[in-house]
Amino acid sequence: MQQIELMAPAGNFESLQAALDNGADSVYFGVEQLNMRARASINFTLDDLPEISKRCKAKHVRTYLTLNTIIYDHDLSIVKTLVKKAKEADITAVIAMDQAVIACARELGLEVHISTQINITNIETVKFYAMFADTMVLSRELSLRQVKKITEAIEKEQIKGPSGKLVEIEVFGHGALCMAVSGKCYMSLHSQNSSANRGACKQNCRKKYTVIDQETGFEMELDNEYIMSPKDLCTIDILDQVAESGIKVLKIEGRGRAPEYVARVIKCYRNAIDSLENNTYDKEKVVSWMQELEKVYNRGFWNGYYLGQKLGEWSNGSGSHATQKKVYIGKGVHFYTKAKIGEFKIDAYDVSIGDTILVTGPTTGAKEMEVNEMLVNDEKLLTGSKGDTITIPLEFRIRPSDKLYKIVENKVEV
Amino acid sequence: MVVITLQRNKCIGCNYCVELAPNQFQMSKKDGKSVLLHAKDKKGFFTAKSNDDIIFDACDKASKACPVNIISVKNI
Ligand code: SF4
To answer: CB within 8 A of A414, min separation 6: which ones?
Structure first.
């Protein structure tokens, strides 16, 4: 079995670094407005492309630029600019849904990956897009059995992409699922004039709804008012079956998520993929990975449609069920390289010996550790509070732009 | 007087403002973002003033439709 490529989301440099530090094989990200997270203020800009490429290359990590919204006439020249700059920065591939983007990337000699929004559900469509693309995401609604049929047919019929290699199939492995057909949704456009297909989804399916029969006024009794908000996809407990289906790329969702989310989820899936590889994947490990995954943002987990479930499992809340949360403490001040000690200034709250801290930053990524030793204003104290300067021995380097958080338990209201 | 402001760098190029106020907005073929016509740029905030009160309604509609809320319209 060929090793599965683990593909991580990167919404900014912090998440990018977290993905690199925790074992991603590839990362995907958007720049400017033409991607599915156009609303997010954390998008990279065109000028960031060389730096992204440089950091990833140093770790032999592939880079994918998402350019997967619908495209209007007035977008055509920015599409060209984006693809050209991506090519110049030696980005590995562009993830596309519009034929104009596919054509443009092919023309400029950039590898193309077909985005889930194209909605590939059969082998003939795979054959069709093989004329343009080396990797394709299949529709989210397929079962693993169906996925397997497609990957077997690729092998049997030797369906090759422009690179001359067999077409690789990618599926979603973890993260948000919504009720739209493979990401194509008009709900946000209908209700709030904000098109998901231009990266402006307002996530109104995540809210509470009531269903009323207009004729009788009968209100449907629903145990759960979140009738359109599915739980998050999680496949770590069925990863052996996912791998069996012959997929080559496992994509993790979450370009809008915090860097510690990326760090933790990528770390778990890295471990899981490696365990499959060396035959140590077992139930016990799955249980501990699940506990880890529950600590960061989630709406509850289910296996998606992979095992043939007919309907979604619905979330019972609008927000996260994460068992942990971070509390802002202060900022990085200095790192004493020789002694490997980090100095922080506390702006809020307090931090004590025994606490788990999280340090995030564009170069630092997201690093978590327990505080075993600490000096508060050069004195050995157990707790530092607002206004204090603390120094902590660290296994990693920090920078003055870094933020310091404390990890605390999150009481989940269900 | 009607004062319209567009915070251009946040535009996602969805084209709604142009549909609703075609005389005030146009999509740029260069970067795919909206352009507020006859506007002055001050640190990314483009402002246009007009004595023609009729344009208020159209611009108000555009401002309400903009999914990223970057258009503001005032009648002063
Ligand atoms: S409506 Fe807003 S986001 Fe859409 S093109 Fe106009 S200014 Fe840009």
So the answer is: A316, A317, A321
Cα dihedral value A305, A306, A309, A310, nearest 10: 40
CB A100 within 8 A of CB B55: no
Residues 6+ apart with CB under 8 A from A365: A14, A15, A16, A17, A18, A20, A21, A259, A263
Q: What is the pLDDT of residues A78-109, one digit of tens each?
A: 999 999 999 999 999 999 999 999 999 999 99
Query: With contact defined as beta carbons under 8 Å apart, do A326 and A244 qualify?
Result: no
Helix (H, G, I), strand (E, B) or coil at A181: strand
Atom number of ligand 1 nearest to Cα B71: 7
What CA–CA distance (Å, rounded) separates B52 from B9? 27
Distance CA A163, CA A207 (A): 44
Contact between A46 and A82 (Cβ < 8 Å): yes
The β-bridge partners of A357 are A369, A406
Contact between residue A111 and residue A67 where contact means Cβ atoms under 8 Å apart:
no
Give the mean pLDDT of A118-137. Answer: 95
CB A174 within 8 A of CB A232: yes
Q: Round to whole Å and give the CA distance between A318 and A94.
A: 32
Which positions ≥6 away from B19 have C-beta within 8 Å? B65
Contact A77 B30 (CB under 8 A): yes
pLDDT at A166: 96
Amino acid (1-letter code) at residue A126: V
- What is the pTM assigned to this prediction? 0.84
Single-letter amino acid, residue A356: T
The residue with tokens 């204090």 is: A388
Place of tokens 């979604």: A312
The DSSP code for A241 is: H
Contact A33 B30 (CB under 8 A): no
**How far is A398 from A341, CA to CA, in rounded Å?**
9
Instruction: Indicate the residue of B13, B64, B65 with minimum beta-carbon distance to A75.
Output: B13
Helix (H) or strand (E) holding A384: strand A383-384
Q: Compute the nearest-CA separation of A234 from chain B (Å).
A: 31
A208-252: pLDDT as tens digits: 777 777 788 776 655 556 666 777 889 999 999 999 999 999 999
Query: Helix, strand or coil for residue A94?
Result: strand
